[in-house]
Description:
Elements: E1 2-3, H1 6-14, E2 19-21, E3 28-32, H2 36-46, E4 55-57, H3 64-67, E5 68-69, H4 73-82, E6 87-93, H5 99-102, E7 107-111, H6 116-123, E8 129-130, H7 145-152, E9 158-160, E10 172-177, E11 180-185, H8 191-198, E12 226-230, H9 233-239, E13 245-249, E14 262-264, H10 271-286, E15 292-296, H11 303-315, H12 325-329
Parallel strand pairs: 1-9, 2-9, 4-7, 6-10, 12-15, 13-14, 13-15
Antiparallel strand pairs: 2-3, 3-8, 4-8, 5-6, 6-7, 10-11
Helix pairs in contact: 10-11
The chain binds threonylcarbamoyladenylate and magnesium ion.
Threonylcarbamoyladenylate (TXA) binds near residues 28, 109, 131, 171 and 184.
Amino acid sequence: MISKDINLAVQHLNKNGIIGFPTETVYGLAGNAYETSAIHKIFEVKKRPTFNPLIVHIKGIEDLTQVAQDIPPIAYELANEFWPGPLTLILKKQPHIPDLVTANQDTVAVRIPNHSIALELLNKLNYPLVAPSANPFTSISPTSAKHVEEYFSTQIDMVLDGGICTAGIESTIVGFNNNKVVLYRLGAIPVEAIEKITGTLVVPNKKESKPITPGMFLKHYAPKTDFILTRNVKEEMDWYSDKKIGLLLFNRHEANLDTKYQRLLSEEGDLEIAASKLYDVLHQLDKLNLDVIIAERFPEYGLGNSINDRLERAAKKENNITNDLTTENGF
Ligand code: TXA
Ligand code: MG
């Protein structure tokens, strides 16, 4: 059930229920971060392996020490600059954070969402909310209440409607290791903006098996339709000329295909607008009964890198596990 009733959401959460939860990035599947029964439900409904940890959402920076400890000054600098907002910090956890939230690691992922309804809800609770994106494991992330309802209608208590997500892709994730700031996931805040504060970000050590990072799942954010990412859309269209093709493009249509099978992410050529529309357009194309979706590779700067990361994962055939963020992201 989709509803704007925040008090109803509070009631469900207080009874250890789980709800669709609006944020500025994507909708989350939220439950009480301190209640393992709620957290178990989230993993079950999402069909997510329990070795993949969750993000804890807090209402204000004053709550940070309730979930994390030994917080480095650079983490506070980043939090002051980007919170509330789409930056997730990986910090040393407080002992009372359930192991299920952190996949038995000694770190916890935290952020403050920049969304008025999410903040109003968090302010009515006396606990933080864990919320992975509200999509079945490896599927396209949801950017509207309707997307969440389509995935989970009967399995969750309600979807709190907060409109369309404005950023449209997940938060950028960074952690801290020996005075270095480590990039775990590209996302809604461009790397360049973070590096103004931190200097050059490092990517996780390839040989490291822990922590478990989002880069470990190659196939992710994926439509059901075959999906190809290319620098040369025309060439791929020739290759698939006998197939029913759909196109996902940045700012210009292709001449040789009916425009009803084409989706532009931003006619203005604006990467922020493009990111905000990415998942909705993937959902739309996936419903057109196409044989193949061909996506154009985006410019390799700012949010273009974050969009390419998601398109690369959508294009993966198998759900291999690797922690090789470097080769996957091309930097
Ligand atoms: O924008 C977002 O971050 C959204 C909204 C709902 O806040 N949430 C989201 O959650 O994208 P999820 O679960 O789909 O992705 C969070 C990622 C996971 O892939 C997980 O691997 C990583 O965060 N993560 C969580 N805790 C971690 C930790 N302690 N160390 C490394 N990575 C961690
Ligand atoms: Mg996700």
